[in-house]
Fold this protein.
Amino acid sequence: MPNTPEEYGVADAENPEWTKEDFSQAKRLGELPKQMQTLLRRKRGPQKAPTKVLTALRLSPDVIEALRATGRGWQSRVDQTLRAVYVKPRKS
C-alpha cells in the first residue's frame, strides 16, 4: 500500500485530483439524505466578542499581491499597521 504522495503519483495522497468519473458520480448537497445535509451544513458558532468590523476597501492589484505574499495573517498585519499609524494610544 502506498505511503507517500509520490507513490500515489499525486501531490496530495489523501486528496487526489478528481477525475471525470469522480465528478460524474458526485451529488449536489440537496440530493443527499436530510441527515447528511444537516451534518455537512454545520454552521460556525457565534463570535464570542466581535472585535472587528467587516468593510470593503479598494486597493491596487500590486498592493494586494504584495500583502498576500507575506503569508497567512496578512490582513491582521494590515490592521496592526493602520492602527499604529492612525490610532492614537489611549491615555489611562
In short: The mean pLDDT is 84. The longest helix spans residues 74-86.
